[in-house]
Amino acid sequence: MPDTVICRTSKQQQPYERKSMTTKLYESLQREADEILMYDEDYNINARLGLTILIYYTGGGSVAGQRKTLEAAERFYSKYHGYLKMHFWTDMRRFARLNPTAFQNKIDRTIKNAESGRRFSCVLTSDTEYGQRAPEYQFKTLCSHPIDENGLSCLQITLPLSFLSTPVQQQEFEDWVEYVCKQFDIFHGYAGLTIALPDSYYKYQFYEYAVTKRYWGVTPDSDSPITLLWYEGIKSISWYTLVGKAFQTKLNSMEIQNVLKHYPDITLKTYNDTMVFKA
After folding, report:
1. Residue 257 CB-density burial (10 A; 0-12 exposed, 13-18 middle, 19+ buried)
2. How far is CA 235 from CA 63, 105, 231, in A?
3. What is the pLDDT of residues 30-76, one digit of tens each?
4. Between the chain's N and C termini, which has fewer beta carbons within 10 Å?
5. Coil, strand, or helix at residue 27?
6. 252: buried, middle or exposed (CB in 10 Å: 19+, 13-18, 0-12)?
7. Looking at the predicted structure, is the pLDDT value of residue 1 above 70?
8. Helices and strands in the chain: count of H runs, count of E runs
9. E strand or H helix at 154, and its extent?
10. DSSP letters along 97-151, please?
């Protein structure tokens, strides 16, 4: 039986106060997010609007590349360990409860496996139902095989929509964008809105498709770690569009400057040879 979609009523408006443009955007998005929430018959959340940072990068399969990816996982865990409840790694048969000891053991074992020429994948999630519910916080990565020098690795960070609610959290989200650009040799990527789905996402892709078709600012990315299309070109544009060196030669520098001149809301920064367009 298809999952039941239950819509919540929006919260009452708070007294007027001067707010930043992003805060006003958050309030508008939150009203839409209440409508987007997808529940099953037991009122468990199987789809929610959230924020994502998704990158494809080179060199992730080497020992040094896997260490960099593990450093990112450690950074994510240190910041949000209070929310993270479950984890899954390449050598595990199912999700397991996450705690500091278990996490460190997996870090140590993954480094040894990398030195033995093995690849790894990992998921750290706030979901408490063994990958069956839509997470608010999630770190997911799939590294390329060490012997594939041209292989791409994928990393996706999911954060709650509430990160747009305060300037401090807005900056934290932007800091993550800057961090991944400096940490990895990015092929391409983006950061913005997403529909967060359970790890068993394939059962809910019909809903993801319906929502992203209705809201053009939301990108469908549930199958990002497995699709081969990531080799073809830039997957999508979003609030932040990340363009690595491999694609920069395809951009017209005069057109870029013209756009930046006539649309001041669009900015361009460069980190570690990665162009970051913010719109």
Report:
1. exposed
2. 27, 34, 9
3. 989 999 999 998 899 999 999 999 999 999 999 999 999 999 999 99
4. N
5. helix
6. exposed
7. no
8. 7, 12
9. strand 152-160
10. E--HHHHHHHHHHHHHHHHTT---EEEEES-SSTT-S--SSEEEEEPPPTT-TT-
Torsion 9-166-161-126 (CA) sign = negative
Question: What's the length of the chain?
Answer: 279
Q: Distance (Å, rounded) from C-alpha 188 to C-alpha 185?
A: 9
Instruction: Record the tokens describing residue 6, joined without a space.
Output: 């239950």
Q: In this structure, are residues 6 and 48 in contact, taking their beta carbons and an 8 Å threshold?
A: no
Categorize the per-residue pLDDT at 4 as very low, low, confident or very high, splitting at 50, 70 and 90.
very low
Q: Hey, how many other C-beta atoms are within 10 angstroms of the C-beta on 27? A: 16
Q: Global pTM?
A: 0.88
Q: Is 157 helix (H, G, I), strand (E, B) or coil?
A: strand
- Per-residue model confidence as pLDDT tens digits over 222-259: 776 555 556 666 767 789 999 999 889 888 899 999 99
Longest alpha-carbon distance in the chain: 60
Q: What's the CA gap between 71 and 74, in Å, rounded? A: 5
Secondary structure (H, E, C), 232-246: CCCCCCCCEEEECHH
Residue 175 has a pLDDT of 98
pLDDT band at residue 147 using 50, 70 and 90 as cut-offs: confident
73 Cβ contact partners less than 8 Å away, ≥ 6 residues apart: 107, 122, 124, 139, 141
Gap between the Cα atoms of 154 and 139, Å rounded: 11
The strand ranges marked E within 18-104 are 38-39, 45-58, 86-89, 96-97
How many C-beta atoms lie closer than 10 Å to residue 233's C-beta?
A: 11
> How far is it, in rounded angstroms, from Cα 200 to Cα 131?
7
